[in-house]
């Protein structure tokens, strides 16, 4: 018995050794000096620095109109206006000078300049803003023949693939870092409406926003957008917007549109919890559960029902509502898609027509002034298009605040962009004209009923 045991102990490492991969020592100088330099040389010229600014005008103090005041305090000199600035990166995606960057890099900015890797600087104009994806497209003025990056296919990426991140961290100049794809389809990041990110451990820091994440073929895989950090610096958890979403925004910019319109599902979705998965007989908690449907909307017309779980779009897996939103968001209006659905324990496929959200009723925009709590708000009628554009929870009726003027009465009482005004003093508000009529009346108190974040809030204000 002892001899048998000894033989077995000896056999195990011998078998393991036979199956182990062969490690080969470098045989020449070339195999020792492998480098990412060829990829960097090809793509780095197409990555730019983006400098954005906005001059904030100061109101002139009326005391400067007094000649005595000017004599003693030098009021004749022109006051300087403070300037807000932003620094980021961008990627040239077309030789004509189209540059993709993050929307948060140029948000609220009016003047933009880009600096190429060879130190040339150009003024640029903002031709498309898409805050829902945190992307923006610039056009370099008075130029052409620029180096540009080839757009890859983010659906072809796999966890473990090598990638390079290129940008301008902390304003130190163009910097290249290397890492791998740490994860795909990250949806619980909370950065954009279409949360579906590539996660990488390539070092990304402030200033890298809008820069390139490229694969080993030198193709753009994503736009670096955010990091998870406790200190403000990289700890190896960075997120990039997949290039397949970037393609949609670039195509819209080339088509001359100012706003990207995406397919509308016409349904309210919710994640599949573990308890829901067990009750529906699913193997795991994955998919998008249909909680509600818009009557005569695309989802209803496709045959979707409440309680269905959407598992795939055109064969691509759907793990949650954000995944479904991304898959539809990368498709073209006017085309069609195939939904794979789980219903009553059966798997079935349904055709979905891809149409834009309708603007019914029309917006009828108004900006309110006067002595009401609504002074300073801009409002539009609620419609599926507005609901999609402002990323608000679906309400059947009401008007939506599309903007709030800084320092206005409305801002001071706490009204916010995206609030849905449902009723004022118990009078239902269905159109912007209803709100204007009520706001013009003199009242000593106001009772407001608002929809915000899917919740209904009622508050009372005096004055």
Question: What does this protein structure show overall?
Answer:
- The protein is of the alpha+beta class and 463 residues long.
- It has four domains: 41-58 and 79-140, Thrombin, subunit H (Beta Barrel), CATH 2.40.10.10; 150-254, Beta Barrel (Thrombin, subunit H), CATH 2.40.10.10; 267-353, Roll (Pdz3 Domain), CATH 2.30.42.10; 366-462, PDZ domain (Pdz3 Domain, Roll), CATH 2.30.42.
- It has twelve helices and 26 strands.
- Strands 20, 21, 22, 23, 24, 25 and 26 form a seven-stranded antiparallel beta sheet that branches.
- A hairpin with a 7-residue loop joins strand 8 (162-167) and strand 9.
- Residues 1-18 and 68-80 have low confidence and may be disordered.
Summarize the structure.
The chain has 463 residues and is an alpha+beta fold. The chain is 20% helix and 34% strand. 37% of the residues are buried.
């Amino acid at each position: 018995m002892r001899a048998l045991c000894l033989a077995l102990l000896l056999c195990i490492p011998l078998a393991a050794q036979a199956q182990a991969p062969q490690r080969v020592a470098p045989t020449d100088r070339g195999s020792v000096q492998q480098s990412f330099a060829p990829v960097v040389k090809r793509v780095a010229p197409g990555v730019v620095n983006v400098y954005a600014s906005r001059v904030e005008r100061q109101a002139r103090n009326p005391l400067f109109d007094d000649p005595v005041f000017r004599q003693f305090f030098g009021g004749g000199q022109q006051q300087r206006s403070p300037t807000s600035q932003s620094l980021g990166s961008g990627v040239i995606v077309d030789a004509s000078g189209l540059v993709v960057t993050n929307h948060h890099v140029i948000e609220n900015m009016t003047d933009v300049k880009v600096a190429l890797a060879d130190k040339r600087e150009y003024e640029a104009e903002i031709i498309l803003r898409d805050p829902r994806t945190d992307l923006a497209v610039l056009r370099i003025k008075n130029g052409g023949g620029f180096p540009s990056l080839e757009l890859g296919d983010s659906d072809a990426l796999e966890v473990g693939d090598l990638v390079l991140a290129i940008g301008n961290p902390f304003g130190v100049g163009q910097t290249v870092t290397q890492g791998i794809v740490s994860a795909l389809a990250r949806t619980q990041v909370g950065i954009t409406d279409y949360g579906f990110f590539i996660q990488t451990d390539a070092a990304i820091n402030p200033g890298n926003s809008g820069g390139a994440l490229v694969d080993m073929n030198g193709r753009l895989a994503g736009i670096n957008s955010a990091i998870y950090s406790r200190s403000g610096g990289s700890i190896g958890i960075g997120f990039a917007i997949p290039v397949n979403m970037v393609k949609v925004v670039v195509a819209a910019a080339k088509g001359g549109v100012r706003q990207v319109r995406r397919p509308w599902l016409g349904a309210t979705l919710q994640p599949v919890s573990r308890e829901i998965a067990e009750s529906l007989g699913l193997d795991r908690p994955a998919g998008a559960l249909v909680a509600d449907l818009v009557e005569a909307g695309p989802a209803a017309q496709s045959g979707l029902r409440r309680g269905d779980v959407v598992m795939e779009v055109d064969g691509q897996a759907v793990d949650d509502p954000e995944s479904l939103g991304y898959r539809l968001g990368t498709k073209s209006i006017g085309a069609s898609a195939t939904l794979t659905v789980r219903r009553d324990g059966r798997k079935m496929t349904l055709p979905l027509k891809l149409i834009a959200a309708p603007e019914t009723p029309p917006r009828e925009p108004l900006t309110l002034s006067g002595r009401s709590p609504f002074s300073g708000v801009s409002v539009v009628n609620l419609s599926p298009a507005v609901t999609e554009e402002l990323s608000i929870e679906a309400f059947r009726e009401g008007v939506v605040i599309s903007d709030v003027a800084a320092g206005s009465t409305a801002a001071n009482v706490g009204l916010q962009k995206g609030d849905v005004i449902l009723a004022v003093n118990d009078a239902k508000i269905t159109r912007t004209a209803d709100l204007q009529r009520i706001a013009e009346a003199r009242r000593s108190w106001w009772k407001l009923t608002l929809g915000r974040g899917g919740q209904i809030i009622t508050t009372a204000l005096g004055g």
